[in-house]
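Archive transcription. Copying these from loose printouts into the bound notebook so they stop getting lost. Printout 1 of 2:
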Amino acid sequence: VSPGATVHLHGRARGMKADAELRVIFVIEEPRRVGFALGTVDRSVVSGEESFMLEWHDNDEVWFTVRAFDRPNAFLYKLFPGMLRRRRRALFQRYLRAISPLYTTSA
């Protein structure tokens, strides 16, 4: 994967289609840090970016950081902003489950 590459994602979040065409913004490959960022392209229902970084600190702690920002493009998400927040929360919970078998959601 390299900056400028296009990525096509297909999936579901809370029963809703979550397909996206994204562009790779940057890729970092250093001895103690790896990561990348993705941004939406023109026809997306939201406009935004997400970055994913994995860092190994000198004290042997490993940190995984996800940063994201977005705004709605689709009329439905502009009309009902709570839908976008719920969908974003569901996607982030899936990220956390994917990296940690110990992750659980609050009841």
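Printout 2 of 2:
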Amino acid sequence: NSLMWMHYMNMRKNFVYKLEEKLVYLKQIVDNFPDKQIITFSEDAEFADKIVELLGKDVCRAYHTKMKAKEKNENIHLFEENKIKVLSSTISSTKKSSASRKICLLL
């Protein structure tokens, strides 16, 4: 039945998007590449905010549609000025700067 298949595919998709184990591996990547900046792309703002909670605001800031423009601009500025190491995003494009020093992860 195609409706049942679609239902199970949606359940699988949601499971994968919110899989907590991804946070463990992200922390290892951040720790293992101290000289790199990292941009993460999550499916939803809730998971992007979990990344900020995990890493702390001194290391990571969010950048997603549920934020006010002023806060998004402040966070992207901190990232571009190398004052934070990780930008946790839900969008597929951010301003480009120093791309050779960045690692992008789709979480």
